[in-house]
Amino acid sequence: MPLSNTLDPTRCPLCGQLNQCAMEVQQATGVEQPPCWCTQMDFTAELLDQLPVQARGKACICAGCAQRMAAGPETA
Predict the structure, then answer these.
(1) Rounded CA separation 14/32 (Å)
(2) What's the rounded Cα separation, in Å, for the pair 19 and 55?
(3) Rounded to the nearest 10 degrees, how much is the dihedral formed by the CA atoms of 70, 7, 30, 44?
(4) Chain centroid to CA 49: how far?
(5) Is 20 helix (H, G, I), strand (E, B) or coil?
(6) pTM
(7) pLDDT per position as a tens digit, 11-38
(8) Phi, psi for 65 (deg, rounded to 5)
(9) Number of other residues whose CB lies within 10 A of the CB of residue 66
């Protein structure tokens, strides 16, 4: 799903699915969250290069997109 004109930090900028980012939940609600799944993930430069410029540093990639990219091009 392409990025719409309005950036939603709770959605993955690559696929549009909910990114389930605990850091975003904490920022939005003020309720302390456990460490986010993304803090244990290694995001490759190749994956980060796929992000639209306007989403960089503003919306998290979802676990599904991160895992597909880590698994290699045959599963993407």
Answers:
(1) 27
(2) 13
(3) 20
(4) 13
(5) coil
(6) 0.71
(7) 999 999 998 888 888 888 999 999 988 8
(8) -65, -40
(9) 21
